[in-house]
Amino acid sequence: MTAVDDRLITDVAKFFEDLVVPEGFKAELLRGDIVMMAGPDWVHNLIILHVLKQIPLDRWYPVQTQDIAIPGETSEPQPDLVVVEHGAFDGPGRLVPAPATTLLVEVVSKNSVHTDYEIKRSMYAAGRVPAYLIIDPFEAVCVLLTKPTGRGEEADYDMELTTAFGLPVPLDVLGIKLDTTEFRTLPKFKRYRRP
């Protein structure tokens, strides 16, 4: 028989900080909810690798497995790639303030569609992240979001540019055009749509 701990968690951020995540999984704190996911697949990792190798290291720090602090939110997401300009954040610490980032990148998985397109979109906009790039290997598109506005769950990006794989994505915030010709795709799946 397993004992159930029925104590009320009053500080989810503290609980999250002390959480032991099983090997092969990642955990994020998203608007007060702890979300755990299996590690990424091969296509996902190759896409991140292709993005990472195009970012000029003389001006930018492109890092993976970096937690972000969103001001005014009970959220500590871990984007697939975080790009910070040299000198914008010098640490130390596990959390990089969202306003110190220049670009956050998420690669969509079957389990992250809603999170990447909706929850993180408003969360990153609320955190004033200048650019958020969603890379969707199921739809073979990149969605670049810029010009964050609003607060909380109502926050959003004013500019949205969708680019098909194979075409360059203008990442003006980094001063580059992202080559997507090597991005692989995954078979489409039926996405749940709310009425």
TrEMBL record:
InterPro entries: Nuclease_put_TT1808 (IPR012296), Restrct_endonuc-II-like (IPR011335), Uma2 (IPR008538)
Pfam families to which the protein is assigned, alphabetical: Uma2
GO molecular function, one term: endonuclease activity
Keywords: Endonuclease, Hydrolase, Nuclease
Span of domain Putative restriction endonuclease: 16-157
Protein name in the entry: Uma2 family endonuclease
Species whose genome carries this gene: Streptomyces polychromogenes
